[in-house]
Amino acid sequence: MKLITDFASGFMGLFQSGGKTFISWMTTIIPVVLLLLVLMNTIIAFLGEKRMTRLAQASSKNVVTRYMILPFLAAFMLGNPMAFSLGRFLPEYYKPSYYAAQAQFCHTSNGVFPHINPGELFIWMGIAQGVQKLGLDTMDLAVRYLLVGLVMNFIGGWITDFTTAYVCRTSGVKLSKTVDLTARQKTV
Question: Which residue ranges run through the membrane (predicted)?
Answer without folding.
Answer: 22-47, 68-90, 145-168
